[in-house]
Write a structure and sequence with these properties.
By secondary structure, the protein is an alpha/beta fold. It has a domain of 228 residues: Carbamate kinase, CATH 3.40.1160.10. The protein has 15 helices and 17 strands. Bound molecules: adenosine-5'-diphosphate, aspartic acid and magnesium ion. The site of aspartic acid has 12 residues, from loops.
């Protein structure tokens, strides 16, 4: 039995969904569970819509709804032939987008957006993409059925980044999916979304569809879990930046956990835990290049695999600074800022506080920037007025660059090497976080410099093929 998860870019439009269907049909797995994300960018739009609703901008969320409807109808009309199946999927998508509008209207009336209502909104994207994929598979003669993970994954009530309760989850997963698998039906399950034990919709955190696949794989004792994305596995650097980057053919769970933690994009950090416990191999593969073997993640990588470091970079981030204005600055300011962001469902991906300068630097996703500023603006209104906080501002578009050594092998020195390379490059580093393990370090650099920095470090650390690399 295999679980295959397809990410947002893999189901981004009609053409991509058709390619995914070909992969599923070609997989020859007799027992297969498919987990899919929302089409790329859809979750961001839904969240943005909900936030605009909370600001009372009715036109803005209606606009989001219209655009999402148009995008999904285009995919439906391209993929599905006229008939009852198409009518049903169209109706379902319209209903979910109607739910979106209804939710936004109540958020607008209340003028308040809780993490609980944000999850209800954010969960809609997967409910738009998955029924279409299931219907398209049926049209191609494959037995497939759409299943909402709201009925499967049971979580606590930490909305925005809820944790699964494995016992009830596995019970439901087995009860609902095994009968389908026994009848050779492929369940097409929504990634990312879940519900509390009382049925309130929750989510597993941004990028959480990987996690859903791992949870389902663990519950069903899958032979393998495959994560289909848009690059040839985990590479020594993002191949969109460094064309010479090499795929890591095999890595251990420990190494993958480390890489995932610092590069949440390519693999959600919590994905490893459920599969480690059951020793289920995890494979990262490319839906744009399905014959490439990708990266295999196992307990004990084979002896022939190469021991090497990888650079994981994440763009699309913003740095927010809360600057202290006087002697009354205390670490409590940081505690309050982090708490408020968490309450608003905004993840602070990194932060640092300089005691000498009395500054708090926070890294958030770019799409969270404006909302974070509003939330912090309200929290520190008085502090700003009386001068305890002198400035609250977005400090610019940034990216993170993490250099992760292979902890399974004795490879000390990766951190000093990375620092040295960065020093030679002369990049402006605005924040640094170094893991106690000495196997990884993360730098925050201006986004405008990130491609150059990644290429430079990749070359300096000799990570390319035969260490040969021309500098761009
Ligand atoms: P999905 O939509 O399939 O979940 P993501 O965009 O979340 O995909 O994650 C995959 C992306 O991670 C790649 O497209 C790539 O740009 C980025 N990435 C950054 N560093 C690396 C790396 N070292 N190896 C592979 N991918 C990386
Ligand atoms: N759609 C969700 C997100 O954008 C989950 C995922 O893509 O894994 O965060
Ligand atoms: Mg992802």
């Amino acid at each position: 039995m295999r679980v295959m998860k397809f990410g947002g870019t893999s189901v981004g439009d009609a053409k991509r969904i058709a390619a995914v269907a070909d992969i599923i049909i070609g997989s020859e797995d007799l027992r297969l569970v498919v987990v899919a994300s929302a089409m790329s960018g859809v979750t961001n739009s839904l969240i943005a819509g909900a936030r605009l609703a909370a600001e009372g901008q009715d036109d803005a969320y209606r606009d989001v709804k219209a655009k999402l409807l148009e995008r999904h109808l285009l995919a439906i009309n391209t993929l599905l032939a006229d008939g009852p199946e198409k009518l049903e999927v169209t109706g379902y998508v319209e209903d979910r987008l109607h739910d979106f509008e209804r939710l936004c209207r109540s958020i607008a009336v209340l003028g308040e957006l809780t993490t609980r209502s944000l999850d209800a909104v954010a969960s809609i994207g997967e409910h738009l993409s998955c029924p279409l994929l299931a219907a398209f598979l049926r049209q191609k003669g494959v037995r497939a059925e759409f299943v909402s993970a709201v009925q499967l994954v049971v979580t606590d009530d930490k909305f925005g980044s809820a944790s699964p309760l494995m016992e009830p989850t596995c019970q439901r997963v087995r009860e609902r999916l095994l009968p389908l698998l026994d009848r050779n039906i492929i369940p097409v399950v929504t990634g990312y979304v879940a519900a509390t034990s009382t049925g309130v919709v929750s989510t597993l955190g941004r990028g959480g569809s990987d996690y859903t696949a791992a949870i389902i794989g663990a519950c069903l004792d899958a032979d393998e879990v495959w994560i289909w994305t848009d690059v040839d596995g985990i590479l020594t650097a993002d191949p969109k930046i460094v064309p010479q980057a090499r795929p890591l053919s095999e890595i251990s769970y420990v190494e993958a956990a480390e890489l995932a933690y610092f590069g949440a994009d390519v693999l959600h950090p919590k994905t490893i835990k459920p599969v480690v416990e059951k020793r289920i191999p995890l494979r990262i593969v490319n839906s744009f290049n399905p014959t490439h073997p990708g990266t295999l993640i196992v307990a004990q990588p084979s002896a022939v695999r190469q021991d090497m470091a990888a650079i994981i970079s994440t763009k699309g981030l913003s740095m927010i600074v809360v600057a202290g204005g006087g002697d009354s600055w205390s670490p409590l300011i940081a505690a309050r800022a982090l708490q408020r962001l968490a309450d608003a469902g905004i993840e602070a991906l990194m932060f640092s506080q300089s005691f000498s300068e009395r500054n708090l630097n926070l890294v958030v996703r770019r799409e969270d920037q404006e909302h974070a500023l509003r939330v912090l603006g309200r929290e520190f209104e008085t502090d700003l007025r009386i001068g305890i906080v002198s400035r609250l501002a977005a400090q610019g578009e940034v990216a993170t660059v993490s250099v992760v050594g292979a902890p399974g092998q004795d490879r000390p020195g990766i951190v000093p090497q990375a620092f040295a390379a960065l020093g030679r490059h002369g990049a402006r580093v605005t924040l640094v976080a170094q893991a106690a393990s000495e196997y990884n370090v993360t730098f925050v650099v201006p986004e405008s410099q990130v491609d150059d920095v990644v290429r430079f470090i990749h070359r300096e650390l000799g990570l390319g093929l035969n260490g040969n690399e021309v500098q761009a």
